[in-house]
Amino acid sequence: MPVWSFLEEYDLSGKTIIPFFTHNGSSSGASSISTVAELCPDSTVLADDSFTYSGNNVDEAQSDVDEWLTELGYKN
């Protein structure tokens, strides 16, 4: 809910949002991508580039996040 409150309070119109979710059970952010899109109707939400990570795999998190950022072109 804190993220939803943030998205409701701040105007991200014209911005590109690439969702990053962590969870400990529900997959794919449990429809969170559609909620982000609803809360930010004037933003571009890149659902296909989103990243979801299970808390059960935190030991591999650094390398997986690095790989994701590299694929997006944000890290070399």
TrEMBL record:
Gene3D superfamilies: 3.40.50.360. GO terms for molecular function: FMN binding; oxidoreductase activity, acting on NAD(P)H. Coiled coil: none annotated. Pfam families: Flavodoxin_4. Residues 5-45 form the Flavodoxin-like domain. InterPro entries: Flavodoxin/NO_synth (IPR008254), Flavoprotein-like_sf (IPR029039). It comes from the Bacteria. PANTHER family: EXPORTED PROTEIN-RELATED (PTHR39201), FLAVODOXIN-LIKE DOMAIN-CONTAINING PROTEIN (PTHR39201:SF1). This is Flavodoxin-like domain-containing protein. It comes from Ileibacterium valens. The lineage of its organism: Bacteria, Bacillati, Bacillota, Erysipelotrichia, Erysipelotrichales.
